[in-house]
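We treat protein structure as text, and this decision shapes the records that our systems exchange. The tokens are whole numbers drawn from a learned vocabulary of local backbone shapes. Below, we set out a record of this kind in full and without editing:
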Amino acid sequence: QLQLVESGGGLVQPGGSLRLSCAASGFSLAHYAIGWFRQAPGKEREGVSSISAFGGVTNYEHSVKGRFTVSKDSAKNTVYLEMNNLRPEDTAVYYCAAAYGSSWYHHPPSLINDYEYDYWGQGTQVIVSL
């Protein structure tokens, strides 16, 4: 069974940090680019960050640029989202998604076009609050 499993969410105070993990099972992430998305209550899902399949190119949504860092460890078949200086508005369910194909080897997928992604995880909750 091919699946992505997110972990690492939780409750953190403003200014704190969390590291989310996206682990693949049943397939190798070596030729997959990864995107991170989030959905806050009552809001549409939005793209946060993406990374090319070979890990050399990243993309960030404006509000997280300089605070979030995406990285890929192919040996562990896992992608990470390091989140620093968290704000209450970062509260959301965070999802990872995998995009397959040579188009994404050196270029990260869009943070807007959901259809570019082939597999989605179930999400992990992040709450930023006092």
